[in-house]
Amino acid sequence: MAAIKNFKLAMLLCSKGAQIIRMILSTRLSNFIAILRTYIALRLFAFIVIIFMLIKFIAINYNKNNFIELLLLRLTEHIVMTPKSKTAKSTTLIIERQALDHPENTNNQQDVHIAGGDHKGIVINKHAVAGTIITR
Question: Could you name the domain of life of the organism this protein comes from (predicted)?
């Protein structure tokens, strides 16, 4: 009789223990799922923010209407800046477009300097710079 009572008590404890373990596991699993959902939502939000920032950056730097014109400009001609005079506060420049298919523009590659950085693609005429008096 005592063995049966002990068995019933053991079964009751096992079933209660199993319920408690299931409750703990389900709570931890739900917490894990909630944390995972939050992590995924934050990553998705960061991705969307980065995409919108890139779109904004592209929209600021390249107008949609002028994008094709800008590409064609880079393929067929370049912009040459020739300094005329310089004061303490300003520099006067002549800005010209020169076609790349003319021999006088393509033969003298040592005569020009192609700028980089913020002024990338702008060609500076070295002969004109050497011929002008520029003071600082």
Answer: Eukaryota
